[in-house]
Amino acid sequence: MSRKPSIRDLEQKFKAALLELLALKEMCDCLINERYDHKTEIRAVIFMNVKCNDLTDQRNRLRVLVSEMDDCRNQYEQSLLQIQVLEEEVHIYKINMDKLQHELDLYRLNETVRLCDSMLDSTA
Q1: What is the mean pLDDT of residues 86-105?
Q2: In 3-state terms, what secondary structure has residue 5?
Q3: What pTM value is reported for the model?
């Protein structure tokens, strides 16, 4: 036969259920706090990921700028070398021009002397 539970048995079951319910509520609160902490961590990771992506983009832009600067520097150095070559050529042409001018001056002087000699010879 089945026995009817007494009030004391019911009270004990009720207290046990209440204690179990309180323990479950505490566990639920703990899980909610952990969930909140994890959400905060996820937000921090997302922020760091966005920041990292921004830094990656900046790094890539800097690499492009550095490459362009290298190209400009190389072009500048090539231009300087060309200028040096041209300056050397101008210097050589100037020396040759000075030599030719000197030869022309000597030729004119010799012609003037010869003309004077021929004039003196014809008057004598």
Answers
A1: 97
A2: coil
A3: 0.51
